[in-house]
TrEMBL record:
<protein>
    <submittedName>
        <fullName>Uncharacterized protein</fullName>
    </submittedName>
</protein>
């Protein structure tokens, strides 16, 4: 987690298919994310999530 850059780096096994990964986020009650926390996401070229608190 890089708070200054507001980024989180995630590593996956070399054999992982990044074209359709199911994400999992733990958010506090009332917070939401875009895309949704349990969505299938194409991570082959990175992804941006927006977190909204309340």
């Amino acid at each position: 987690i890089d708070e200054q850059k507001q980024t989180i780096t995630v590593y996956a096994p070399w054999s992982a298919s990044l074209n359709s990964m199911t994400t999992s986020l733990s958010l506090p009650e009332g917070a939401t994310s875009v895309p949704k926390a349990a969505a299938n996401v194409d991570l082959s070229s990175g992804a941006k999530y927006r977190i909204f608190n309340g």
